[in-house]
């Protein structure tokens, strides 16, 4: 098989998001998260089944509160006891890995999707993506945005409303736009 747009996407190379295989994968994800978002709160087992169909990994105790939105779902990995609160958006053309016991506040946004900086290259259509890795026991406050390629270390707290554009080390409190370390824990 020749080099597919999906393979290029997963390697972090420029790819065409309009590729029919990728469009189909995004449509599949939308149908699943629409079912998840409209499911009954009393039926936790149905919700968990949908999440397991949608996401690449859902470890025991991991949970997402609807509404929830993603591009593909298959590149999202939730370790044990991860909690994702209401209204989160995880754009996952590249892997998003969230470590055990991490909590995301409401309306947190994780964006692996990226675009060329040069206008002519950007409007030509190809996109690229870079993974996001969030360590264990991290807390990301409501409304925070994590940009492509960022790693957040274990035991770190990210303040509400922060824009995380660079890696954040383990064991710190960081906040702001751009997000910077305020203190070590």
How would you characterize this protein structure?
The chain has helices at 5-10, 20-38, 44-54, 119-123, and strands at residues 57-58, 63-64, 68-70, 76-78, 83-84, 88-91, 96-98, 103-104, 109-111, 113-114, 128-129, 132-134, 139-140, 145-146, 151-152, 157-158, 163-164, 172-175, 180-184. With 185 residues, it is α/β, with parallel strands linked by helices. The chain has one domain: Hexapeptide repeat proteins (UDP N-Acetylglucosamine Acyltransferase, domain 1, 3 Solenoid), CATH 2.160.10. The strands form four sheets. It has a seven-stranded mixed beta sheet with strand order 2-5-8-13-16-18-19, with no helix packed on it. It has a five-stranded parallel beta sheet with strand order 1-4-7-12-15, with no helix packed on it. Strands 3-6-9-14-17 form a five-stranded parallel beta sheet. A hairpin with a 4-residue loop joins strand 18 (172-175) and strand 19.
For the sheet with most strands, the description reads:
7 strands, mixed
**Using DSSP, what is the number of strands?**
19
Say which CATH homologous superfamily is assigned: Hexapeptide repeat proteins
H/I helix tally = 4
Q: Could you name the CATH class?
A: Mainly Beta
Q: What is the global morphology? A: globular
Give the spatial strand order of the biggest sheet: 2-5-8-13-16-18-19
Q: What is the architecture at the second tier of CATH? A: 3 Solenoid
Poorly predicted segments:
none
Helix residue percentage? 10-25%
- Oligomerization category of the chains in this entry: single chain
Report the structural category. alpha/beta
**Percentage of residues in strands:** 25-35%
SSE order, as H and E? HHHEEEEEEEEEEHEEEEEEEEE
Question: How many domains, in number, for the residues?
Answer: 1
- What's the mean pLDDT score? 96
- Measured distance between first and last alpha carbons: 50 Å
CATH topology (fold) name: UDP N-Acetylglucosamine Acyltransferase, domain 1
């Amino acid at each position: 098989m020749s080099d597919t747009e999906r393979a290029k996407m997963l390697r972090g190379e420029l790819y065409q998001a309009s590729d029919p295989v990728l469009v189909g994968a995004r449509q599949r994800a939308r149908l699943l998260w629409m079912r998840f978002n409209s499911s009954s709160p009393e039926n936790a087992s149905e919700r968990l089944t949908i999440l397991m169909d949608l996401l690449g990994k859902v470890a025991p105790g991991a949970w997402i509160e609807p509404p929830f939105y993603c591009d593909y779902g298959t590149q999202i990995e939730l370790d044990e006891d991860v909690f994702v609160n209401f209204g989160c958006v995880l754009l996952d053309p590249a892997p998003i890995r969230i470590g055990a016991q991490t909590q995301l506040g409401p309306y947190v946004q994780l964006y692996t999707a990226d675009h060329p900086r040069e206008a002519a290259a950007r409007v030509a259509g190809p996109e690229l993506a870079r993974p996001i890795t969030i360590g264990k026991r991290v807390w990301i406050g409501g409304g925070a945005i994590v940009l492509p390629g960022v790693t957040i270390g274990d035991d770190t707290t990210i303040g509400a409303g922060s824009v995380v554009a660079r890696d954040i080390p383990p064991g710190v409190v960081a906040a702001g736009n751009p997000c910077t370390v305020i203190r070590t824990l």
